[in-house]
Specification:
Length: about 260
Amino acid sequence: MDERFLQGRHFLKSNWHLVKETASDQSRGLPPPPQQEPPQPDESVVSLPTVDKAYGIENDSLSAPATLHRLLLSRRSRRAFKIEKLALTTLSYLLWSCEGVRENRGKYSFRTTPSGGARHPLDVYVFARRIEGLKPGLYRYLPLEHALVLEREGDDSEALDAALMGQLRNSSCVILWAAVPYRSEWRYGKAADKLVALDAGHSCQNLYLACEALGLGTCAVGAYDQQGLDKYLGLDGEDMFALYAAPVGVPGGASLDD
């Protein structure tokens, strides 16, 4: 590994074990910080029009603002799922929403998510647990071809659940993001780690909205066993490593939404 980038790459990795090792202010009983910084006494506050009135949004409207408004209002982190299969067309839509290519210009591409310098330093994997037309196994998404490559066949749910620290639940599939930081480091050097993290947020929010549009549920997972998930994905943990995960399924069962 290039020593120039060691610190930034370490910053991107899961260090959830430190939660138990280090006492937080919450665990020490200190009050939480305010949700927002209050305006100063000498600052004026301008009230904004409510969004639904500003755009004339009605419950049955099919306009673009109304449709997006409903998706944003209904977006939740959903953790409880029914044991059901998803169609391959559904998975196709979810993956395209995360990293789909709008325009390929050879050395770079424009996708459904923004990326600093169009570097797109993420690889997307899918654990297909219950997908119609797909053998259970681990797949890697190829955005340029909009295709899947089978990395490993078989339902190894237990290994993945252990790496995700018990957060697999009854999901039909799991979307997993791996960082390939040199794609951004090549251009931005030591400033790349922030851009990699931002890309993951962009991609996962697209997944949330796509799931909401299809009546599915998902929940972003940032707490995982770094070495365990790297091993599960077959990554070296240095030039490529696990960054983010999101189980996906049909909502149902006990209410675990927020």
